Amino acid sequence: MKALTILFLTTLTASTPTLLPRQGDIPPPGSDPPWAPQYSGTGCPQGTLDSRLYGEKSRLTASFGAFNVYSGPAVSVKDRVKNCQVKFRLKAEQGNQYSIEGIDYRGYASLDQGISVEGQVVYYFSNAVNTTTIRTTFQGPMLGDFIQHEDAKADALTWSSCGETGDLVVNTRLGFRTSSSTGYNQLTGDSVNERFEHSYHLRWRKCGGDVVG
How far apart are CA 138 and CA 203, in angstroms? Predict the structure, then answer.
C-alpha cells in the first residue's frame, strides 16, 4: 500500500533524532566511491550532485544542488520543470538482489494554497527489462523545510539481476502541475545547506527469495 508522510522540520524536537542525517560511508580523499553516479539533465548540471551510501547499503542518497523548480509571472517553462537521470554502479553481494522500496525527499517549499508540484521517479536496472514508478505530489499550502516520504507498491518492485553487475538507473522529474499568474512559488533545496536530497531506501533479499534487509 502506498504511504505518504510529510514532516515540516520546524516541528522537530529532541524526541525525533532518527530524522537527522547520519554520516555516510565516505571514501578516502582523492578516490571515487564504487557507487559514484553518472548523471545528466536540467536538474543536475555537472558538478551539482553528491551521493552517499549509508548503513549496510540500506540507504542511498542523491543530494542535488540545482534541482529547483519555480512558478510565477515571467518564470520560463524550463524553470517550472526539471529532470535528471542518475546511474549508480551499486554491486550486490553474491546471491543477493536489491530494489528501491521508498524515497525520502528533503528540501524547502513555498507553495500557496492550490499550487502543487508533481514528482515522478522511474527506476530500473541496465541489465533488466522491468521498471518501477514512484509518484508524489507536493501540495500547497507548504512553507518551510520538509521531509516527504513515498513508498513504492510492494508488488511492483523491480529487482536487480542475480550474479550480474548492472547500473541502477533513476529518472526523476519535478514540475508544477498548477501555478499562479500572480504569485511566486518554489520547491528547492532546504534552508540549511541549499540542497534538495533524495534518499532511496533499499530492500535486499536472497536471489528470488526471502528479504534480508
Answer: 25
